[in-house]
Amino acid sequence: MTLLNLYNNTVFLNKQLPATIMFLKNWCIVNVTGIDSIQYLNQQFTLDVNTVNHNTYQVGAHCNYNGKVWSPLLLLKYKKDYAYIIQSEIALKQINELKKYSIFSKVDIFLNKNIILFGFAGFGIKNILLNYFSSLPTKSNNIIYYDDVIILRLEFPTERFLMICMTRKSYVFFNSIAKNMLISNDLQWKSLEIESNFPLMNILTCGRFLPQSLNLNYWNAICFNKGCYYGQEVLFRYEKKKINKLDIQILIGKSDILPIVGSSIKHRDKMKNIYNAGIVLASVKLLNHQILLQVCMKKIFCKKYYSFYSSQDHINKFLFFS
Q1: For labelling, which of 37, 77, 222, 293 has a CA lying 20 to 30 Å from the CA of 279?
Q2: What is the pTM of this model?
Q3: 227-266 as b/e: b if 16+ CB within 10 A
Q4: Which residues contact 168 (CB under 8 A, 6 or more apart)?
Q5: Please, which domain of life does this record's source organism belong to (predicted)?
Q6: Please, is 8 exposed, middle or buried when counting C-beta atoms within 10 Å of its C-beta (0-12, 13-18, 19+)?
Q7: DSSP H or E stretch at residue 274
Q8: How much is the average pLDDT of 159-177?
Q9: Same domain, yes or no, for 300 and 179?
Q10: If you write DSSP's letter for every residue of 140-194 in order, what string do you get?
C-alpha cells in the first residue's frame, strides 16, 4: 500500500492546517491543442488568453451565451498549447459545451487522463518543498515548469501550491515526499478553496450564475477589451450598470446535517419572516461537527450580524466566517 492510500479525512481550517499533501481526484486537466487554440479560447473564455505564458497562469470562466458560468477555470500553457484545470464533476458537461462551436476551427479538446493533481498547503509547506525543488512560483511568476511537474502558486487563503504530475515517475516521487507531511484528500483542498472565496461548481449549479455573482471579477477573470466572446454583452451590461445583486459569502456553523449543494440558505428576521437568502455552492465538514459553506447570497442579506440556517436543518445557525 502506498502512502497516498492512507488518507487523513480530518479537514482543518487554514490557520490550523499542518503541512499537508492532498490527492485531488475531483479536479482534472483539459487540454486544448491546435493552431486555432488561442483564437478559439478567446472567443469562449472570459479572460484574455494572450496574457497566459510560461511565467503566468490566469483565472477565467467559460460562459454560455446568456453569460452564465459553466465553470471557473485556471488556464495555463501546456507544452506548446494550452490546458485548464476544472472540477471533475462538471468536466464532461463543460467540454461538450466548449466543443459545440469548434467544428470550423482547428482545435482538439480532450480530458487528459495521464496526469495526477496534488495540492500542497499548511504550516512550513514552502520550506519543505524547497528541499525537493530548486525554486517555487512567486506572486509575479505564478507557475514553474520542471521535466515531470508543473507547479502553480495560489495566494489565498494563504500561500499554497497545486502540482500537475505528468508521469508515473512523479507519482513515485510524491509517495516519497509525503513522508514529511500529513496526507489528505480533496475535501481539504475544497475547504481551502471555500476560504479563499474561489467559486466551486457542480452539475446542479453550473450555468446558473454570472461571473460577477461568483466574485470572479475580483480574480481579474473577466476581460472587456479583447473582442467578442460568449456572454460578453450581458457581462458588460451588468458591469456598467452595477446591477449584480449576488455575492459569494462564507458561512460557518455546527450541524449533523451537511447542506446539499444547490439547496437554499434561509434567514429569519425579528418578525419571524423567512427569506431565501442564497444558494449553497459548496459544503465541507470540519473538526468538532463544524461545517463550512460557500453561498451565492443576495447582497441585501450580506450583513455581518445576520444568522442563517439551511433548508435541511432549521435549528442550527450559520454565521459569517471571518
Answers
A1: 222
A2: 0.94
A3: eebbbbebbeebbeeeebebbbbbbbbebeeebebeebbb
A4: none
A5: Bacteria
A6: middle
A7: strand 274-285
A8: 82
A9: no
A10: SS-EEE-SSEEEEEE-SSS-EEEEEE-SHHHHHHHHHHGGGSEEEEHHHHHHHHH
1: confidence class by pLDDT, cuts 50, 70, 90:
very low
Q: Are 75 and 57 spatial neighbours (Cβ–Cβ below 8 Å)?
A: yes
State which of 179, 195, 211 marks the end of a domain.
Answer: 195
Residue 221 has pLDDT above 60, yes or no: yes
CA angle 202, 207, 213 (to 5 degrees): 95
Q: What is the DSSP string of 90-127?
A: GHHHHHHHHHTT-TTS--EEEE--S-EEEEEESBTHHH
The residue among 2 and 315 whose pLDDT is bigger is 315
pLDDT at 7: 57
The per-residue pLDDT for range 271-295, each reduced to its tens digit, is: 989 999 999 999 999 988 899 999 9
- Number of domains composing the chain: 2
Tell me whether strands 246-254 and 81-87 are parallel, antiparallel or unpaired. Answer: unpaired
Position 78: which residue type?
Answer: Y
Residues 252, 292: contact at Cβ < 8 Å? yes
> At which residue does the C-alpha cell 505564458 appear?
53
* Cell numbers representing residue 48 in the block: 484574455
Helix (H) or strand (E) holding 37: helix 37-44
| Per-residue DSSP letter, 258 | P
The helix (H) or strand (E) run that includes residue 39 is: helix 37-44
CA atoms within 13 A on the CB side of 180: 17
Quote the CA–CA distance of 234 and 242 in Å, as a whole number. 12
